[in-house]
User: Fold these one by one.
Assistant:
Number 1:
Amino acid sequence: MPAIVVAVVVGVLFFLGYRYYSSYLARSVYALDPAFVTPAHEFNDGNDFVPTNKHVLFGHHFTSVAGAAPIVGPAIAVFWGWGPALLWIVLGTIFAAGVHDFGALAVSVRHKAKSIGTLAGDVINGRARMLFMIIIFFLLTLVNAVFAVVIGNLFVGNPAAVIPIVVEIPMAMAIGQYIYKTRSSALIPSIVGVIILYALILVGQAFPISLDGLAEALGVEQTRNVWVVLLFIYTWAASRIPVWMLLQPRDYINSHQLFIALGVIALGVIVGMNTIQAPVINDVPEGSPNFFPFLFITVACGAVSGFHSLVSSGTTSKQLDKETDARYVGYMGAVGEGSLATGAVLAATAGVAASEVEWNALYADFATASGGAAGNFVNGVAQFANNLAIPLDLATTFAAVVVISFAATTMDTGVRLQRYLVQEIGEQLNIRVLARNLTVATTVAVLIPLAMALIPGEGEAGYTFGVLWQLFGTTNQLTAGLALSVIAVWVTRRGRNPLAAIIPLVFLLVMTTWALILNLRNFIEAEQWVLAPLDALIFVLAIWLIVEAALALMKARRERPAVPVDGTGTGRESVVARANPDEATSDVPLGGSDRDDRR
């Protein structure tokens, strides 16, 4: 199968999904109102709340949600065949991620740009907020652990990428200082930063850096683990400094890299006319994880990501100029992520191998597939870049720099968010040393994922990575499930059809709990007494989420208004407000209109 045919078909399906399904969601499910005064206008402070052009906001949102996850997950999932992986990416993007990302943004905007965690407490109940905090804690722990392993493996396999990635840190800090002191636009400095970053690839080629000698001197069996420890030392320091000094300018640079990478994949596929060498459905070895349910939690962010609800309701909802822009920003952000995941599938099936025999060697078993997924993507993208007359060694380092940059940005954000969460948990439990002491909170946020990343596995790649990725996938899908349950309850209470949110919610929860049960059995049989209790705890959270969502939906159905709320502020909101006085203060005034409340 020519890769260009797959790319075109997927592109057409994504276009149709945006053109028709997102239009249905905007009109009939979320009832967007162009006259609604968004929080960006209501609370405009020139800092967090800023009305922003929808195209600019889309760029911010897309680069915030897109990272290494939609690359690694699909690159592993093609182990079961590129057909099932791609089918779930397309269906998941159109019918799950689009509903989830768009809905989290729309609901947050209607509730004064509150975060999805706060909305869980407001829309469902107080227990749901605590549930959200616990799930997010595990999600961030696993995000930080798996991406540390990804970066460590890529540094070992691509020593020429070390210098560009390391120099990017002080370069980003210099750009941050310049922007902060001059109050100038980030566009030109960040483009210059990308040019310097790619020029440093030549330096990295001339001076590759390996830590094999250091690992041997320290008696560490896997060089990757030395990199993992260094990465967490770096993130410990990086998470303590203001975001404008490093995190934001690094995001500016990586935002350009994201679009460059997508462009290279698209052009490389067109020019090279690469053919997919992997089977549509793979005959996997006996003893491999089951197709159902593990493919779905392995693809994870490539189809739907709970992490996106944090961004939609965190920063994006504070910058939305018009409520109707939520369709473009939220749904198209999901489509962008699905496009990146599609690129990962093509790189791991059409670019990485010249024959089916070659591909079968790379995906001989699940351990090999999971451990080599990031490397397969790098080599696949390098081949696409080579089609554009870029030397293969330079192309390989370029692809490695792109993936490591995305993963490092995710780690930077993840450790910082973990530290915030540790402090919030400290406040909730009245543990002052966690709530008030920045050093202690940061250390806790670093040590837990570090311990997870260093769990011994089999071989240099380590089967442990595949296990950690599955646990990350289940936790990520639980987060998406919680966000979808908030959306479904909110839509039901406004008298509209919640099936668009309920169907993906049920599917995600079924796949997640199924995977958790199978993994728990495997962990117990293998006597993995670290992973088994963790899996069991996540399973308890899944059951808790199912119960809370079911109770909240049944209650919402009993209280739903006879006439659907159309979002135009007609006064019919009072039906909901009278039935739900607690919600009235966070959505619309009792008996009043949306617009009147915000004049």
Number 2:
Amino acid sequence: MRIAVIGGGPGGLYFAALVKRRQPEHQVTVWERNAPEDTFGFGVVLSDETLGGIEEADPELYAELAAGFARWDDIDVHLPGGQVFTSGGHGFAATSRRRLLGLLQERCRVLGVELRFQEEAPPAAELARSHDVVVAADGVRSRTRAAAAEVYRPELDERHCRYIWLGTDLVFDAFQFHVLRTEHGVMQLHGYPYSDAGSTVIVEMREDVWRRAGLDRMDEQESVAACEKLFADTLRGHALRGNDSRWIAFTTVRNVTWSDGTTVLLGDAAHTAHFSIGSGTKLAMEDAVALADALHTHASVPQALAAYEEERRPVVASTQRAAQASLEWFENLEQYLDQPGWQLAFNLLTRSRRITHDNLRLRDPGYVAEAEQEFAAAGTPPMFTPFRLRGLTLRNRVVVSPMDMYSAQDGLPDDFHLVHLGSRALGGAGLVMTEMVCVAPEGRITLGCTGLWNDEQRDAWARITGFVHERSGAAIGLQLGHSGRKGATKLMWEGMDDPLPAEQAWPLVGPSPLAYRPDGGQVPAALTREQLGELKEQFVAAARRGAEAGFDLLELHCAHGYLLSSFLSPLANRREDEYGGPLENRLRWPLEVFDAMRAVWPGDRPMTVRISATDWAEGGNDTEEAVVIAAAFAAHGADAIDVSTGQVVSHERPAFGRSYQTPFADAIRNRVRVPVIAVGAVSSWDDVNSLLLAGRADLVALGRPHLYDPAWTLHAAAEQEWSGPGVEWPVQYAAGSRRPQTGRRL
């Protein structure tokens, strides 16, 4: 084959060398517009996984690289006030970018790759007419991608920080994070060694801080001098140097597809991931291995390109999620500066969600033990520490999330609900929440929803709370709500959000006459002021019955597009009276309902509020609005905010992923200074411990894991070999408190 490579960075060169090594008869040409000795940046960090792939794919290149690696194990976190926290056992390897490129260039020459430096590559479409494969490794500002944007359909997300890539002759002995509080705002330095003669230094800050500091008006030399002055203590008298260094706003690149005919994107042209997890060169070189393998093992180029993308896309997506979490953490670093130093350091180390509490304990058990000691007691898993809300002390930090069961008749909970909630209370959780209990028949989502609009329902709930109190050490919470414009739908397993037949449905109400499903859903009637007063009284009456039924905690459901949630969202609330318009007005009626319920709810029992912290839709509520909403409820006496997201509009576009909703809880907790319950794709006890120890949440609610395993909390204790406070096996189940053997030896 004739193969053209556009771009002579690490990814393009490595691919060229690999494909030529595999099949020397291929004609491989690399175009690079810069000179061979030109390079930007300083050091490159490679993971053990990437190095293993290099060793397997090209042992000769690996041997050359390994001979000059800088290696270290520690991460140092330097905080304002001089606090330093060190975590070991991480294992890094780095080399200079210039050395890496030199080795790759020489490897290409030895293998017979044609290298054309200081020569602009012809357009990919032109090269494709004379080559079997065109590999576009032309970087984040890829001309190839731009020329065929209608095919690749790129999404370019420019972020909110500015950073500059510099070097120094100070050789760091660890990966360095330095947090600096200045009169202009928070700045941070990322630093790591790449040889026995120098280190990479990246200075980063939010754009508004960058502008206030006047750095936007400085050239390279002035910027270097300013950074030297700002981080003089870190540099200990050593100088910084630039290399065509500029202040950059990081751009996250994603593409719907990576290939166009026989042209394929590689590395930053296809995808980027923030430098704070050291992934750009790593991803490009891993792409090179996968693409070379695919071309070698598949019969046709289209099959090879499809296989390459199929293999790499999930890996890249996972890395990009971790990188996104990391970059957003640094964008919002200022919100954590009031955390205790030990917690801020742990928070930084676990920011990407890839490094966790248990993972850190494997790497550096002493570091984690010290953090646990600060949190509660060394050796105690954070999830098994108690938490107090008003007069209620929960035995541990695990919450069984509210989950609709759609199994009631006329709103009446029955034996199913007793077994469902009772089994999860016996399963060890600190707090078990009911599903959304509706305050009126017309407030149900489905015909199977439970209610609390009459005394018969109150007495049925009292039977359940009595069982929980008598037979377990759990608390039980009541979530009250009204379906609003999302009511009168079929049971979930019959068609989620599908409207009931007209003869079974009831009229819907909402803040405005806007259907949840524009494709045929019922249009709600806009509520009058008189109706708002009547509805408020329904909430109050249900709260009274909840107290009489013996619930320990009351939660007001202001999330997921139900009635109170739709008042909060500008996408559902188009009113022109005092309950619509700006957020202050949209908050008014939900706060009135909360105040009225708080007035009748016992003073020693806590009240929480569940909110959708983002609508996941343009023009809707997002983090900033969520902070205001949470602060308003906290000011009115909410003891905690239960932070969920979405389900407010049918055209939402959620960014699903592991613990994808927790950053919103994190922002509310650390900006509003109110306890929060985190929810959303949290499935492991390790994640629960990580969120708590990092100070991103006070309680963690899990739904699906408790459907899979009603005794999830007890099993989490067994898996951590924990039998101390915070966990109590029912005496009837005590024989099962250790993991069963999975096999026997003769």
Number 3:
Amino acid sequence: MRRRSILSIAASTLLVATGTAVVVAPPPALAEPGPALEVDVTADRHPISPHIYGMNFTDEALAEELALPVRRWGGNATTRYHYRYDTTNRASDWFFENIAEENADPGALPDGSSTDRFVEQDRRTGTDSVLTVPLIGWAPKARDGSCGFSVAKYGPQQRTDEWRPDCGNGVRPDGTLVTGNDPRDTSVQAGPEYVREWLGHLTAKYGTAAEGGVKFYNLDNEPDIWHSTHRDVHPTGANSAELRDQAYAIGAAIKEVDPSAATLGPVGWGWTSWDYSGLDQEECGRTGCWANPPDRPARDGLPFTTWYLQQMRDYEEQHGQRVLDYFDMHFYPQASGVAFGNGTDPATNALRLRSTRALWDPTYTDESWINTQVRLVPRMKELVAANYPGTKTAVTEYNWGALDHVNGALTQADVLGIFGREGLDLATLWAPPAATQPGAYAFRMYRNYDGAGGRFGDVGVRATSADQDQLSVYAAERGSDGALTVMVVNKSGVERSSSLALRGRTAPSTQVYRYGAGNLGAIVREADQRILVPPPVVGAPNGILPHTFPADSVTLFVIGPPSAPPPLTVLHRNLDRLPTDGQIRPAIDLDNPGRVPVDLSRVTVRYWFTRDGGRGAVQATCVQATIGCANVRQSVLALPRPRRGADGYLEVGFTPGAGTLPAAGKTGPVELRLTKADRSRFVETDDHSWRPAAPGYAASTRITVYLDGVRIAGTEP
């Protein structure tokens, strides 16, 4: 019989709170040991964009429930849409037909179009809109139901629309493509002037982006495969110059009408879009010329996306105007059965869960024909930093499949956590789950876990798992109330017990919310769980949360905001009467006028100064201390950029042996000395923390104090 782990025994002794009552938690069922988890609220702090929680074409009820941050009107049909006729051409998705959108009053168009209604729904739910504008140069000519490959005009074809048999798929019975058709069968030309007119209509009705109107515009949809999706009007692959020049022209038209709107491009379909233009993909798809694509010389040998970003940067440098705000690439996992697949095959389910590593992991080789390290989000950010700094990143289409199954919900929760941790700026799922499907609950865990608008935090912090394939973990602080939110996804397929270490934050207990295979119809509020306080040894975390994570579950811990910081004061005395000699001699005495004792190992103090020349390193020494120099740690750190009154600081910390600073107590003097290895002089009078030598100690606001890495007293330079 397997022995119970020490961790399981410890977990069984925890107390949990239910409402205001405190009860003993029942011993957990035997569980497999899980990986160690850790959250450090002082490390890797970065904003999480709310726009990563977006979808394409979400219905209003779900959008309202999630307070959906962004919603996209995209896809193949939106490449060719005419706002005056409220008509799209469905391209290869449906026999290249012009199909009019349902409209109660076509005579009122363009007012009341489907895109007007799309924007109006978003305004009702407080959602930012992404609309797709055409770069292809064509839009439907009327609400006339025409199609690109008429059988009467171009001859028999392999397949036709069963309801409109004159509309074919553009493939002859022998398998060859119909060529030489007339784009004007379905379309009229639509260039920058069309875009200016459409945006003029939108801004007149809804205001500019800055005024609450449409915030984002996609520069078409997957233009590098027009030769496939829209070959009735663009039979050859778009070359690099066309994709660039059209982005220039349409991006400038957008900015002319609404300078506050943001543009997203090049909106490539997937992995081959990174290196190859449409022309490359069309020709090499036929001939296998991937090692020597025809359009590469036009890019000076560069991959397409590298060249594209450089060209967008060059435009801004030449015209003083940015026409690309977001670097946007679509990504669908290419392994068989993953994207848009179901959750019925265990092997595919396991692949789906581990394939999210393609979004970030440099050690993961994609298990498809891609067969290399994708690192999608870091790759995007690195490419932008190298070629067009300041451009944001977006993935306006992705789908890991099985949204109707718990496996898809686990995967989707993992994807959203990765987007936040890695710093993606915008993402929209294609296509949205139904409100009752497990995939919708993955979004609820981040956007409405308690049914009352409870959200995952908006300031990401470091969260690590010893085995991300078993338990993945993501953490963030919530700006509205300071709560720490920690999301744990159990992808291992079995129940696991792990210990979550908290650094820089603790609390008596945490709320626990869970979604998983045990209840596919609701997020369950579990009993609150007490957080353990470990012994005060060197390197120990501030809190420990042992927990058993059910198989196939997503668990959210909501840890309340930190209590008010203790009102610590630094008393300072300058022991050096010569401010221009070879030493700095600050003495400090920490005063705690509050009512709560403070663990000194959580406290650091910074004395800010300038090195004032010299080649030797600055050395710090504890001369004497009431609490003993053995319990005082000191180090000198240089600032990456000098500030007024400081190019570095002396940081003073305390070992656990220093104990606690009692309420209404003091540490007693800690006398310190700074010297330079080359014995050169300091000039202290312009140092931020300096005060003239005097007989006694006085409170200083220029020496700063930190608790768990967060400043609680004093002013930095």
Number 4:
Amino acid sequence: MPREKETKRDTLTTRQGRPVTDNQNLRTIGDRGPATMENYHFLEKISHFDREEVPERVVHARGTGAFGYFETYGKVGDEPVEKYTRAKVFSGAGKKTPLMVRFSTVAGSKDSPETERDPRGFAVKMYTEDGNWDLVGNNLKIFFIRDAMKFPDMIHAFKADPVSNVPDPTRMFDFVSRSPEATHMITFLFSPWGIPATYRHMQGSGVNTYKWVNDEGEAVLVKYHWEPKQGIRNLTQEDAGYIQAKNVAHATQDLYASIERGDYPEWELYVQIMEDGYHEELDFDPLDDTKLWPEDKFPWLPVGRMVLDENPTDFHAQIEQASFGTGVLVDGMDFSDDKMLIGRTFSYSDTQRYRVGANYLQVPVNAPKNKVRTNQHRGQLDHRNPEEGSGDPSINYEPSMIGGLEEAEEKSPQHQPTYNAAAMTKPIDRPNNYGQAGETYRNLADWEREELIKNLSNVLSQCDERIQEAMVYHFSQADEEYGRLVKEGIAKKTEEMEDMQEEEMPGREAGEQSRYGKGTANQQKASEEAVDKGNESEPY
């Protein structure tokens, strides 16, 4: 075949740099084979192909992301930010810090639909002048459980049956029925808030409680909230099914397309601030991540904005290998005693060491922008810059009298909380599992409450009667009407299913062809329709 007339292109090489003259054929004895053992280029090519993927995340496997910046206002509301925190990322009005964000679903696999009813991950990595800061949270501001001991069981229950690999809502509700603290989260999840229309049109939250520390070593509790400037849009179950039938990656496509056309999504960052302590005036523990802090007592205070204006150029390198951890804080931030936060802090970084490797922090998307100087090295794929070590590479330990690295000078006092209590394994003393769940139910718009009842009734009608009774009890404790309507909805749906006759499965016709990288016209249309079909909601 004649070679195409085109601009001269770079030459293909092996990974060792040798030019490849034939990338189409194995070396064989005769043109029909057998193949020879010294097919080095083929063996290298196929063996690398066999190892292309890293293990998918146990949670948050399906996701996408983008790059941009955070611009600080230099204030917390009307007050100087330095009153509360010495974190430099918040100081100096107008200062911009580069960042990347990964949005995700939680329980689904890597290729699961983005229309599933599931919390959405909202993880932000800021490359600050003092090192990386990861704010790892969800779109919903609360969680199912308040103690990290229950986390593996919760995720096991929410995933597919380990025997059949078939998703079964009975498993999730079996767990939730014995975890009354989940009533609040279930109320949000099965309302339209459980299916955001797109990643651009959803709120974000740190979920857990952190601390800010100022120059005096004084600390306050803090909650983080991201508010989308594009507005909030959520899908009904019916609309989500409509979108899913056309495109299972509509939210990924929507985010990429919006940035590509210059319609950069933007969020404003707010914080709520509370003095650290027991707070007897509250009917819940402020460290309980199943609770919202009431806005009238702890107002949202703006501190900056985030803009996403750059798409990834290599999804695997920049998004799939992006690694986050709740323990990745900078000076001026600290941990609260939130039991879920402490458990997440070990788990999140540990899973990255398993997934990506011991040196996952050397992957460019994870590496900080400031200088790294550490004695933590070696291991698989260690390729750190020798200049990032000490002046004497032989001194890979500290302390030393003759060289190597030394500790930084402490410029501001550390926050030093004090405790006087016995070590124990007990739940908190103010669980109040139903109060806020009832408030959230009553605060939903009429159409949102109707959708909530319908969704819960449809799913619970498939569950064991014991689970149905337990869930109706929990909902009734939150609000009498709530429990009664779910009970009536289960009975109605059960009757419908008993009367339903088996229908023939319709034939399937061949679909239209996809243009490479663009998706079908239906898929593109579905991505656009997700925004139009999303119903606007007020912030909560």
